[in-house]
Amino acid sequence: MSDAIPSLFTDALKLAHASWRPVLHDGLAAVSRANPKYLPELAADTFLPTEGRIFAAFSQPLPSVRYVLVGEGPYPRAESATGYCFMDGAVHALWSEKGLSKPVNRATSLRNFMKMLLVTSGHLKKGQTSGAALEPIAAQASAAGSPWIQTREELQDKLLQHGFLLLNAALVFRPHVPPLKEAKAWQPLMQAVLAALAVQADKEKAALPTMVLWGKAAELLSGLPENALFPKVVSEHPYNLTFIDNAGMQALFGPMDLLLR
User: 3-state class of 261 per DSSP?
Assistant: First the structure.
């Protein structure tokens, strides 16, 4: 079966933590069995993320996973698609003199996620999350010796420290392939991932990780038998302004203090 998996994908396993590699290899084999043409055709095509980062999210060790944040698919831009869901690689600095940085404001989901955190912490008032309201917060965050994180990379590290597996339902993006079709092709691997997490929880006599599902992510996983085992927190996608005031997201992320070092 290994011969049916192009080396491009087995080589990409190097970016995954060792605890995940057998699981992902089995998942690739399952993808190949379900649709023998898919991986060879994908290997011959151009897709995102680049630089072999298709399994980058699995740098989070399997035993460390406490939450599985499921995105729909990679960003459709090479600089933005990092292999981690929701983490826009085009963003570095989080703050500017006038509030959030321009790259954050362009990354709608990240912008609304940060505003949700600021409302939850009491730094912003509900319904007053733009313009002048952000300036004093940015000044406080950017001050010398500030305890606030400064970069998207730091935010990503904070999420990983809290045990997040930042996973996309579709591991690749191609402009000529519908995202739902791409996600469907990866479902056998997703099933292997969820099964491995269930086995790990049973081995540790621990609670199953919580699935954090935004937008269509819930639909993309609904057909997997293992999906029913996991506790879930579901909301609209963060690109919706209503996400800022979502009580479920505030309750989940508020205690984590993600914007503080």
Answer: coil
